[in-house]
Amino acid sequence: MVQARPHQNKIGRRGLMFVLSSPSGAGKTTLSRLLLEEDSNVELSISVTTRPKRPGEIDGRDYHFIDHAHFDAMVKKGALLEWAKVFGHRYGTPRAPVFRALQAGRDVLFDIDWQGTKQLAKKERTDLVSVFILPPTAKELGRRLQQRAQDSKDVIRSRMAKASGEMSHWREYDYVIVNRHTDQALAELLAILAAERLKRERQVGLSDFVRRLQTRL
């Protein structure tokens, strides 16, 4: 378990892993971006991937784009907290930057699927908070995928076909949000984050703080 050290006479906080998962097109990427803009204490975990860059993506900002040999080496060294194969490409979370952030009391946002979330739950359940994002309707999911204009028709059909299987894992998550309206879904995410930060076990130094209060009564 990663601990954050409180300053003298103050309550510190251990950072948490805030996971968002959803079928493609449910709005997870948009909500992740808005959450990062809204809360400066949250930073994005930048995954490594073997897939090619899409138009507009930047290496080191959106993903770390690496080849299969490099990915294999990271798996072998235990340098990834989780990894999964999605639509023929592999994605993984580098361990070191996540642990540095948690130690500093910062929260780390993960944009990963149910496979990666399951691996994180096995390894780091105490620090994990998971949220599954659902679309309001299947029709709306298809519309959003087409509106992105990033994928071919064959890829869109493949994503739609896979969505049902992905959504079957909603019970494995701590929270579920139906993304009917972006503003409402963002407010719900921020409420979850605020509540999780206040959990007693995440407030490092709380026992000493209460003890000092009691001695002054």
The count of β-strands is 11
Question: Distance N terminus to C terminus?
Answer: 34 Å
CATH hierarchy, class: Alpha Beta
CATH architecture: 3-Layer(aba) Sandwich
**CATH topology, which one?**
Rossmann fold
Written description of the protein model:
- 43% of the residues lie in helices and 21% in strands.
- The protein is built from 8 helices and 11 strands.
- It is of the alpha/beta class and 217 residues long.
- α1 packs across α7 (182-197) and α5 (138-148) runs antiparallel to α6.
- The protein is globular.
- It has one domain (14-203): Rossmann fold, CATH 3.40.50.
- It has helices at 28-38, 68-77, 95-103, 114-124, 138-148, 153-167, 182-197, 206-215; strands at 12-13, 17-21, 42-44, 48-49, 64-65, 80-86, 89-94, 107-111, 128-134, 175-178, 203-204.
- The model has no long low-confidence stretch (mean pLDDT 90).
- The strands form 3 sheets. It has a 5-stranded parallel sheet with strand order 3-8-2-9-10, with helices on both faces.
- The protein starts with 11 loop residues before the first strand and ends with a helix.
Quick overview of this protein structure:
43% of the residues lie in helices and 21% in strands. With 217 residues, it is an alpha/beta fold.
Descriptors:
single chain, 5-stranded parallel β-sheet, 21% strand, 11 strands, 217 residues, globular, alpha/beta, Rossmann fold
List the topology elements.
Blueprint: E1 12-13, E2 17-21, H1 28-38, E3 42-44, E4 48-49, E5 64-65, H2 68-77, E6 80-86, E7 89-94, H3 95-103, E8 107-111, H4 114-124, E9 128-134, H5 138-148, H6 153-167, E10 175-178, H7 182-197, E11 203-204, H8 206-215
Parallel strand pairs: 2-8, 2-9, 3-8, 4-5, 9-10
Antiparallel strand pairs: 1-11, 4-7, 6-7
